C-alpha cells in the first residue's frame, strides 16, 4: 500500500511515522515533506505545492497511491480533496465545502446551532459598531476570533477592551473581513480528534495542548507549544460524550446539507462550569495535540484512515489505544511568535532520538549545504511516551535537552500541572 501525505510540518511527520508503523503500508510519500520525513525508512518527499489541485492530482497519477491524506487546512479549503476524488482517488480530508467548518468560524457556529451542539454564545460582526456592541454585551474577558483561516493565531482573549477592538479592526480591514465575538468560556480546554467517513464517527484519545508561548500560559497565542495525553482529570467517558453530543450530530448535519464530512474533525472543547462547550472546529489533525493522540493509537493508522476514506468505518470496530502517556514539547525559533529568526543550525537530534521512548518530529527545518537549520517559527517537536505522565514528561525533556538551537526556546511546564494533579473541570 502506497500512501501520499500532503504537507510539510510536524503533523505530517507524525502521520508518516504512524502510517509506517502499519504493516499494511509499504511506502509513504510526503509532498512537499521535510528533512525529518525524508530520513524515515520507507518514506520519501516530493517538492510540490500541496495547495495546487492540478499539481497534486498529477503527482497522484504518477504514484497511484491507495490513499491520500491531506494534512494541513489550506489544501482542503483550496479544494484539493475535491480534485483528487474527481480523479477517483480515496482521500482522507473533507471537500472544500465541508472544510468551511474550519475555514469560516461563522459557518461553524451556524452548523453547531442547527445540530444542537453546545457552544459559546457568539455574534458575527462586520463593522466596528457591531464589534463594540458585542464586546459590551459579553463583557470581559473578551474573545475575538478572525472568521477565516489564521493558523491557530487569529484568536485574542484579553481583559483589555482596546486590545480586543484593535484585533477586531485588523481582521475587518482585510478583504471580506469579519470577526466572531464570543462569550468567554471558563474551565480547561481539551482536544478530541474524531475520524469520520461521512456517516460513522470514531474518536481518538483526548489531549490537551498549550497555546501560549510562555510558562504559566504567559504571552501571546501560538500554533501550540506542547501537548499531552491522557487526561486523567477529565471525565473517563469524555470521548464518548464528544461523539454523542458533538461529532455525530455535526456529521449528521453536514450529510443532511449534502456536504458529507469525510476526514478528521478536531473538536476543541472547554469543560466549563455549565458543562462541555465547543470552542472551535478544525478539519484536520492538530499540531502538537494530534501528535500525542497518534502516539497512543494502536489501531493501524492506514487501516483506520482507509476505512474513513472508503465509507467503511462501521466495519473497523472500536479503536485500540495504549494505556501509556504521551508528551510533546515544541522547540521554537528565537523571536517566535512575533518575529521568528530562521536559519540557525540545529544539532543534537540524533542524540535526542537515541533516548529510549522519545522521537523528534520536524516542524520547520531545511537543509543548507547538508546542514540542518531552522526554517520556521516552530522548529521541532520532541515526543515521548511512558508508563505514567511523569515518566513521559521526564523523557521528553531529557531528549529535548540534547538539542541545540541558538536562541531557541521552549516551555518548561508542559503537562506539569496535570502531573501534579492541579487541573479539574470548572465547577
UniProtKB/TrEMBL annotation:
Pfam families: GARS_A, GARS_C, GARS_N. GO terms for biological process: 'de novo' IMP biosynthetic process; purine nucleobase biosynthetic process. Residues 109-310 form the ATP-grasp domain. InterPro entries: ATP-grasp, ATP_grasp_subdomain_1, PreATP-grasp_dom_sf, PRibGlycinamid_synth_ATP-grasp, PRibGlycinamide_synth, PRibGlycinamide_synth_C-dom, PRibGlycinamide_synth_C_sf, PRibGlycinamide_synth_N. Keywords: ATP-binding, Ligase, Nucleotide-binding, Purine biosynthesis. The keyword Protease does not apply. Pathway: Purine metabolism; IMP biosynthesis via de novo pathway; N(1)-(5-phospho-D-ribosyl)glycinamide from 5-phospho-alpha-D-ribose 1-diphosphate: step 2/2. Its EC number is 6.3.4.13. Its cofactor is Mn(2+). It catalyses: 5-phospho-beta-D-ribosylamine + glycine + ATP = N(1)-(5-phospho-beta-D-ribosyl)glycinamide + ADP + phosphate + H(+). Belongs to the GARS family. This is Phosphoribosylamine--glycine ligase. The gene is purD.
Amino acid at each position: 500500500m502506497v500512501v501520499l501525505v500532503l504537507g510539510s510540518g510536524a503533523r505530517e511527520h507524525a502521520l508518516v511515522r504512524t502510517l509506517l508503523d502499519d504493516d499494511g503500508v509499504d511506502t509513504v510519500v510526503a509532498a512537499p515533506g521535510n528533512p525529518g520525513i525524508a530520513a524515515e525508512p520507507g518514506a520519501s518527499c516530493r517538492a510540490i505545492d500541496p495547495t495546487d489541485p492540478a499539481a497534486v492530482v498529477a503527482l497522484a497519477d504518477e504514484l497511484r497511491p491507495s490513499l491520500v491524506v491531506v494534512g494541513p487546512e489550506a489544501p482542503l479549503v483550496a479544494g484539493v480533496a475535491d480534485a483528487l476524488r474527481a480523479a477517483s482517488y480515496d482521500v482522507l480530508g473533507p471537500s472544500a465545502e465541508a472544510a468551511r467548518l474550519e475555514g469560516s468560524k461563522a459557518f461553524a457556529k451556524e452548523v453547531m446551532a442547527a445540530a444542537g451542539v453546545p457552544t459559546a454564545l457568539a455574534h458575527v460582526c462586520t463593522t466596528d459598531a457591531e464589534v463594540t456592541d458585542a464586546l459590551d454585551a459579553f463583557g470581559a474577558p473578551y474573545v475575538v476570533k478572525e472568521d477565516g483561516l489564521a493558523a491557530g493565531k487569529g484568536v485574542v482573549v484579553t481583559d483589555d477592551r482596546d486590545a480586543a477592538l484593535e484585533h477586531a479592526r485588523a481582521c475587518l480591514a482585510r478583504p471580506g473581513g469579519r470577526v466572531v465575538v464570543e462569550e468567554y468560556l471558563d474551565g480547561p480546554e481539551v482536544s478530541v480528534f474524531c475520524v469520520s467517513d461521512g456517516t460513522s464517527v470514531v474518536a481518538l484519545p483526548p489531549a490537551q495542548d498549550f497555546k501560549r508561548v510562555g510558562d504559566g500560559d504567559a504571552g501571546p497565542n501560538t500554533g501550540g507549544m506542547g501537548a499531552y495525553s491522557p487526561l486523567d482529570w477529565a471525565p473517563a467517558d469524555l470521548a464518548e460524550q464528544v461523539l454523542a453530543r458533538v461529532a455525530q450530530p455535526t456529521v449528521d448535519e453536514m450529510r443532511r446539507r449534502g456536504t458529507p464530512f469525510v476526514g478528521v474533525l478536531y473538536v476543541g472543547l472547554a469543560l466549563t462550569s455549565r458543562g462541555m462547550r465547543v470552542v472551535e472546529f478544525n478539519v484536520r489533525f492538530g499540531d502538537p495535540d494530534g501528535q500525542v493522540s497518534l502516539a497512543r493509537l494502536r489501531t493501524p493508522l492506514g487501516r483506520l484512515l482507509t476505512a474513513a476514506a472508503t465509507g467503511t468505518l462501521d466495519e473497523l470496530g472500536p479503536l485500540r489505544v495504549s494505556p501509556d502517556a504521551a508528551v510533546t514539547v515544541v522547540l521554537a525559533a528565537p523571536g517566535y511568535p512575533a518575529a521568528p529568526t530562521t536559519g540557525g543550525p540545529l544539532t543534537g537530534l540524533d542524540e535526542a532520538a537515541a533516548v529510549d521512548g522519545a522521537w523528534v518530529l520536524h516542524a520547520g527545518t531545511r537543509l543548507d549545504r547538508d546542514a540542518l537549520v531552522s526554517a520556521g517559527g516552530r522548529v521541532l517537536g520532541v515526543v515521548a511516551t511512558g508508563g505514567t505522565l511523569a515518566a513521559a514528561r521526564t523523557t521528553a525533556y531529557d531528549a529535548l535537552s540534547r538539542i541545540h538551537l541558538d536562541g531557541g526556546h521552549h516551555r518548561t511546564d508542559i503537562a506539569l500541572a496535570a502531573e501534579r494533579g492541579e487541573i479539574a473541570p470548572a465547577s
